[in-house]
């Protein structure tokens, strides 16, 4: 990657899809770089997944494509699993602020994060760029290397206004905590109990006096198991991350057990684990993560989601064939989300202004294919393509080096 020697920067007309954390910082960085920005937000306020709602979907597993989708997956008691020091943007730290209802804890509740994002948007005048209750229906490339964005906006009479616009670039910031991933369980179609996904979990009350199986061992699975354990009859956690013979009571909990993964489910209501144990359960709660989903994106199959690999993406941001007109913020996971959103946004803004020069399309594709080969040779499944984990620091340093920005 190179820095351009151009003396004047290019200003482009850019659409940002989503006004959550990634969309807000993307809009700020794009405008700072001199671009003209429109943010499309289908909700009536900013915040994205950090806007809590008690509403849940009619389909508890999220499989019905005709269901009314609820964007947020927050449960009422959720607190951050990262300290606030690592959740702020570079020049706007996430520090406790005075005011009614403030939450000064180092690991605050979700309402404090939403308040931070609202303050951030207010501080930098971002809301003036946002079209609220305006949903993007389609994004497609047109012949002159621009992108046509079709959107619909709700009117007071309940009808929709449809609008076609052409932009120089589109930055996708629609989040990836809305479309549930569901565990595949042999025999589940005959099992008579209830199933739901953590996307539709809000409070523990529906699990009172029930025998519950939770699939997953993420932070949310552990949080929910402890919360449900306070009122459920029994809670059994099924995890792929433990040995097949695992069956152990959780320390300090009389009614919570950790098992290996589910082997099968049966029409008599029983569920068998790989550890050899079997229980009769009332509810299976899938804490199994989410799928990337871009229903509005029309790329003729060039950009796809295959087993949760969004690709091809150069450095998890630019599809080589459509770069720099199309880009994504926030695809990586198991990282520090807000700082990652910010450096990706700075990079995109600099590329669009011609201050930063991307490699050739061929070189970007070669980089993508090298990543895929490395993951395959290491036995890493496709759905971990965007898992930063141990590579988070190297990735962040690489992006910041291209920007001449310090991580400190």
From TrEMBL:
Pfam families according to UniProt: FMO-like
Enzyme class: oxidoreductase
Assigned keywords, A-Z: FAD, Flavoprotein, Monooxygenase, NADP, Oxidoreductase
A GO term for molecular function: N,N-dimethylaniline monooxygenase activity
UniProt KW Cell membrane keyword: no
EC number: 1.-.-.-
Gene3D superfamilies reported for this sequence: FAD/NAD(P)-binding domain
Coiled-coil positions: none
InterPro entries with a match to the protein in the record: FAD/NAD-bd_sf, Flavin_mOase, Flavin_mOase-like, FMO-like
Keyword Flavoprotein: yes
Cofactor names: FAD
Record family assignment: Belongs to the FMO family.
Name this polypeptide is given: Flavin-containing monooxygenase
Protein species of origin: Salix udensis
């Amino acid at each position: 990657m190179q820095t351009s020697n151009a003396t004047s920067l290019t200003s482009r007309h850019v659409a940002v899809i989503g006004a959550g954390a990634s969309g807000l910082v993307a809009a700020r960085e794009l405008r700072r770089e001199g671009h003209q920005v429109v943010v499309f937000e289908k909700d009536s306020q900013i915040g994205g997944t950090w806007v809590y709602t008690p509403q849940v979907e009619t389909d508890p597993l999220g499989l019905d494509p005709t269901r009314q989708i609820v964007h947020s997956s927050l449960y009422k008691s959720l607190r951050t699993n990262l300290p606030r020091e690592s959740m702020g943007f570079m020049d706007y730290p996430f520090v406790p602020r005075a005011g009614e209802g403030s939450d000064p804890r180092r690991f605050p509740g979700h309402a404090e994060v939403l308040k931070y994002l609202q303050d951030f948007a207010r501080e930098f005048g971002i809301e003036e760029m946002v079209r609220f209750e305006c949903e993007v229906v389609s994004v497609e490339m047109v012949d002159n290397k621009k992108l046509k964005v079709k959107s619909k906006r709700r009117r007071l009479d309940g009808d929709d206004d449809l609008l076609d616009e052409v932009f120089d670039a589109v930055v996708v910031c629609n989040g990836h905590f809305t479309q549930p991933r569901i565990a595949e369980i042999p025999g589940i179609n005959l099992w008579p109990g209830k199933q739901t996904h953590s996307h539709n979990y809000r409070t523990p009350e529906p699990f009172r006096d029930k025998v519950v199986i939770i699939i997953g061992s993420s932070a949310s699975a552990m949080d929910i198991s402890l919360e449900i354990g306070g009122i459920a009859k029994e809670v059994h956690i099924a995890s792929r991350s433990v040995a097949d013979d695992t069956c152990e009571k959780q320390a300090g909990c009389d009614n919570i057990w950790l098992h290996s993964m589910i082997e099968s489910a049966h029409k008599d209501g029983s569920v068998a684990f790989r550890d050899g144990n079997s229980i009769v359960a009332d509810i299976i709660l899938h804490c199994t993560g989410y799928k990337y989903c871009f229903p509005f994106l029309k790329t003729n199959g060039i950009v796809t989601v295959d087993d949760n690999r969004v690709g091809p993406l150069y450095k998890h941001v630019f599809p080589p064939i459509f770069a720099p007109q199309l880009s994504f913020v926030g695809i990586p996971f198991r990282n520090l989300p807000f700082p990652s959103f910010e450096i990706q946004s700075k990079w995109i803004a600099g590329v669009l202004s011609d201050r930063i020069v991307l490699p050739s399309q061929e070189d970007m594709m070669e980089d993508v294919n090298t990543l895929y080969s490395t993951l395959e040779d290491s036995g890493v499944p496709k759905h971990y393509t965007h898992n930063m984990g141990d590579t988070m620091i190297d990735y962040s340093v690489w992006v910041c080096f291209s920007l001449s920005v310090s991580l400190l």
